[in-house]
Amino acid sequence: MLWFAWTMSLAAAPLIDYLRDLEARGHTHISIDDEARKILREFYIRAQQGPVRQDHPGKAKTSITPQDDAQKKPVMSPGEGSRVVGDESGPASQVLSVAGSSPTERIDSLKRQAAQWPSAQELKGLRKTMVFSTGNPEADIMLVGEAPGFDEERLQEPFVGKAGQKLNGILKAMGVARGDVYLSNVVKFRPAMPNQTTNNRKPTKEEMDACMPFIREEVKVVQPKVIIALGGTAAQALLDSEDTVASMRGKFHDYAGIPLRVTYHPSYILHNEATSEKRKLWEDMLAVMDLLKMPVSEKQRGFFT
Question: Is the pLDDT of residue 3 over 80?
Answer without folding.
Answer: no
